[in-house]
Amino acid sequence: MSDVTILISSFDRYSDCWQPVCHGFQKYWRDCPWPVLLMTNEKDFDHPAARVLKVRGGADWSARMIDALDRIESPYVMYFQEDYWLTEPVDTPRILEYFRLMQEHGLNYLRFLAYPAPAHDFEPDPRLGRIGVDGAYRTSVQITLWRREVFRDLVRDGETVWQFEIRGTERSRKYGDTFVAIRPNGKDEYANGIRYVCTAVNAGKWARMAKAYAAREGLAVDFSNLPSDTWWDGFKRWRPVGPFVVKWLHRAKTVLLHPTTAFRKARAKVSR
């Protein structure tokens, strides 16, 4: 039995993502040392890069994860999603070094994207950092190596994947400083980890980068089954400008449409 299982979280509605995500493994991670499972509901999908794991739960993220994690026997799981499409060759020796450190130092979580960047040093390897016990998004569902039993302990029935990132973070505090992430290299949040499209689907819409990836890789992806991102959707995610603008536009809208509520909130802040 492999020590690690790579688990691609998905469900049948997003089956148009399966070809690109498996293409990424086949082209950019040819020497992947671990078995890859693609979660589906009822559909089959034949591809040499992955084996189908049919799970219960439909579109319910937590129900699917609970079913999958209860059936996987490996002590570690690498979490993927169907809309994380590899863009460059994966440095397998480096990934295996990180995994060795994870085993040797009793780590429970290792995230391959430096967003948010870890707050503290990880003395054995400067490419990694410890996520503070009070840090945000300790259970971010980017590409991550998990100790399977810890992942399973933190997943709760009835939560969406976004709720898990918030509530799971709170539940993870009990595991102390055993959560780490790669460190950025300057502004490059992927340099010490894995480069991938993050993400091909945003809030149920195709991202523009998904279509660019398909064109670049020569993939015939059916983009007709989901709506597409607008320029405004993309701008709202453009860090740090987009979220800042959206926040102040929301405040201005509140003042214009609900001035009494806005005044009450402002007065409450001043009186604290």
Description of the molecule:
With 272 residues, this protein is of the alpha/beta class. The chain has 9 helices and 13 strands. It has helices spanning 18-28, 61-71, 92-104, 148-154, 161-172, 208-217, 231-236, 241-257, 259-271, and strands spanning 4-9, 36-40, 51-54, 76-81, 85-86, 109-111, 120-121, 128-130, 144-147, 179-182, 196-197, 201-202, 205-206. Strands 3-2-1-4-9-6-10-8-7 form a 9-stranded mixed β-sheet, sandwiched between helices. Strands 5-11 form a two-stranded antiparallel ribbon. It has a two-stranded antiparallel ribbon with strand order 12-13. Helix 8 (241-257) crosses helix 9 (259-271). The longest helix is centred in the C-terminal third of the chain and has 17 residues, at 241-257. It is globular, with a radius of gyration of 20 Å. The model has no long low-confidence stretch (mean pLDDT 90).
